[in-house]
Amino acid sequence: MEALVVYITASSEDEAAMIARTLVEEKLAACVNIVKDIRSIYSWQGKIEDEKECLMIVKTRLELFDALKTKVLGLHSYSVPEIIALPIVDGSEEYLKWLKEVTS
């Protein structure tokens, strides 16, 4: 099993919680941490934006990433949401076993 951490930003804590709950309920993610009140500075449509957002830290499996991404795109308020995946190269054996057991 190849495990991933996926970063997804959202416009509010409520939006992040709705997306997170859906991902866990549908077994596309084992766990989602929500970090509120991050500050994002980025270029969008020719302007530099400076916004408060929430960050979701999603733990899942590589084979679920496409379904997870599709689900997030359907739920998210942004036209181009941040959805980026990083491999988990190592971790607690017990945690990674649990991650595999609770995802589809």
Give the structure's gist in a few sentences.
By secondary structure, the protein is an alpha+beta fold.
What can you see in these coordinates?
- The chain has 104 residues and is of the alpha+beta class.
- It has a single domain (3-102), classed as 2-Layer Sandwich (Alpha-Beta Plaits).
- The chain is 33% helix and 40% strand.
- A 4-stranded antiparallel β-sheet has the order 2-3-1-4, covered by helices on one side.
- A hairpin with a 2-residue loop joins strand 2 (31-44) and strand 3.
Index terms:
33% helix; Alpha-Beta Plaits; alpha+beta; 104 residues; 4 strands; four-stranded antiparallel beta sheet; elongated
For the record, the CATH class is: Alpha Beta
Rg over CA atoms, rounded to whole Å, is: 14 Å
Order of helices and strands: EHEEHEH
The dominant shape is elongated
Q: Quickly count the helices.
A: 3
Q: Poorly predicted ranges (pLDDT <50, ≥5 residues)?
A: none
Please indicate the percent range of residues in DSSP E strands (runs of 2 or more). 35-45%
CATH topology: Alpha-Beta Plaits
How far apart are the termini? 12 Å
**What is the overall pLDDT average?**
97
- The CATH architecture assignment turns out to be 2-Layer Sandwich
Percentage of helical residues? 25-40%
User: Strand count, sense and closure of the main sheet?
Assistant: 4 strands, antiparallel
Number of strands: 4
Largest sheet, spatial ordering of strands: 2-3-1-4
Q: By helix and strand content, what is the structural category?
A: alpha+beta
Tally of distinct domains:
1
